Amino acid sequence: MFAVAQKLVARLRDRWSTVGPAIQLLIAAFIILISALAALWLVDKLLIYLLARSYVDDVADVFDLNKHLAKAIALTVFVIAVYLIGKTFSVSRTSRRIGYLGILVLLIGHSLVLWRGTNDQKFTTSGESIKCYVITHEGEVRYGERPGIDPATGRPCRAVNIKREDSRNGSRPPNRHSLTRAAANQASGIPRTRMAPSKFSI
């Protein structure tokens, strides 16, 4: 295989030496032009794929999607984006309009999907707060989108934290000793029983 490649290179070199300088210059310019166009095409497709992957990663984080499903959606968005971008360079006015409209739908749809996914969420998957809360004059808790001063009540809208949500929902993190006892009972097969309150207890 290597010997065949060497023979092919030697033949090309012999033919190249018999060609005039002007033809050599034209051939070299043609090869450089084709290489540049191929590199530009690859970079263009790579940028579109990275954009589609970022597009889908935001949605996957909000909806907690499986990574394989996220890859499939990213490839689908990539193919659609390549098709629509190609439409924008068409000589047909109708095709260009379809391309522009499709890209606009992708961009607007991305924001709407993220809005729908985060509408009922208070935290991101990394634990960052995405909501704030206001305690009104009536003592009610109302959630907002941006920390600061609430325009309706004039009170501060503070960032939601996990401890506050736990206390508001009436849940507390389990005690380490209770977890150890529960694990030991489960391992030994002893059912958990609730002690009856003593009549001497206060």
Order of helices and strands: HHHHEEEEHH
Arithmetic mean pLDDT = 80
Low-confidence residue ranges: 173-180, 186-190, 193-202
Q: What proportion strand? A: 5-15%
Binned, the helix content reads 55-70%
Radius of gyration using CA atoms only? 32 Å
Query: How would you describe the shape?
Result: elongated
**Main sheet attributes: strand count, strand direction, barrel closure:** 4 strands, antiparallel
Q: Structural class, please?
A: alpha+beta
Strand order, biggest sheet?
2-1-4-3
Give the strand tally: 4
Give the helix tally.
Answer: 6
> How many structural units, i.e. domains?
2
Cα separation of the termini: 93 Å
Can you characterise this structure?
There is one protein chain. 4% of the residues are buried. 63% of the residues lie in helices and 7% in strands. It folds into two domains: 16-118; 121-171, no CATH class. Helix 2 packs across helix 3 (67-88), helix 2 packs parallel to helix 4 and helix 3 (67-88) packs antiparallel against helix 4 (93-118). It has 202 residues and is of the alpha+beta class. A hairpin with a 5-residue loop joins strand 1 and strand 2 (141-144). The chain has a four-stranded antiparallel beta sheet with strand order 2-1-4-3, with no helix packed on it.
What keyword list fits this structure?
alpha+beta, 2 domains, 7% strand
